[in-house]
Amino acid sequence: MLRYRLLTFDVNNTLMRVRNSVGDQYRKVAKQFGVNIKASDVNREFRIAYKDQLCRHPNFGVTTSQTTEQWWSEVVHRTFHAAGCDCDKETLDNVSSKLFNNFKTSQTWETYPEVKEMLIFLNRNGIALGVLSNNDERLMSVMKAVDIAEHFAFILPSALAKCEKPDAEFFNMALERLNIEPGLCAHIGDNVKLDYHAARAVGMDAYLVDREGTLIEKHPEVNPVHVLSDISDLEPLIFMQ
């Protein structure tokens, strides 16, 4: 007998990842426009620019009336300038536009090795699947590009929902879509605050994907039973014991 009727998933670092690294993707596009920059420098400065942009303009600009492309363009400009690039605005605008479109495609994204097989397994067992991701409106295009969109009953990026994890409202949207009680649902992600604690706060079960094996050491409050090395570890957990 099934334990869950609905499983919701985070996306980034749970179902899929950027190929190589963000820095490598930025470096390759920059080179097309005659700009040379180190991937390691981009990775370092991107993390800072991205976090700061989320603080200044939460949820990809939804709360401050920015378009998604404007939001990401600011991240790109700040990342390149902080990494030591002194190229002109027009060049960086072109780099930003190219990156924005590239990040819709499978050239930039890939699923983890076990993901497609596990999604097929869950579908065959009659469990509804959904996506709850702090992400912009390109998410559907990305998931189609990596060939996993068809496995999900709904895909809900925060920019379209106009709310984001860890807000209870975001999780409740998923429950209301399929009219399922939270006790029959579980959420799977990689962030202790945004995925684990937030889902449990609305009454859902929650599991954390820890591909590096370091989560319990950093977060001893998390029950080790709720930690997965990858999503294939879900297989025995979906059935009643």
What sort of overall outline do the alpha carbons produce when their principal axes are compared? elongated
Instruction: Note the beta-strand portion.
Output: 5-15%
CATH T-level fold name of the largest domain: Rossmann fold
End-to-end Cα distance: 9 Å
Helix content: 40-55%
Strand order of the largest sheet: 5-4-1-6-7-8
CATH-assigned homologous superfamily of the largest domain: HAD superfamily/HAD-like
InterPro entries: HAD-like_hydrolase_domain, HAD-like_sf, HAD-SF_hydro_IA, HAD-SF_hydro_IA_REG-2-like, HAD-SF_hydro_IA_REG-2-like_cap, HAD-SF_hydro_IIIA, HAD_sf
Protein name: Haloacid dehalogenase-like hydrolase domain-containing protein 3
Pfam family, one: Hydrolase
Question: Describe it for me?
Answer:
The chain is α/β, with parallel strands linked by helices. It folds into two domains: 6-17 and 109-238, HAD superfamily/HAD-like (Rossmann fold, 3-Layer(aba) Sandwich); 20-102, DNA polymerase, domain 1 (Orthogonal Bundle), CATH 1.10.150. The chain is 43% helix and 13% strand. It has ten helices and eight strands. The strands form two sheets. It has a six-stranded parallel sheet with strand order 5-4-1-6-7-8, with helices on both faces. A two-stranded antiparallel ribbon has the order 2-3. Helix 10 links the parallel strand 7 (205-209) and strand 8 (227-228). Helix 1 crosses helix 4 and helix 3 packs across helix 4 (89-102). The protein starts with 5 loop residues before the first strand and ends in a 13-residue tail after the last strand. The mean pLDDT is 96.
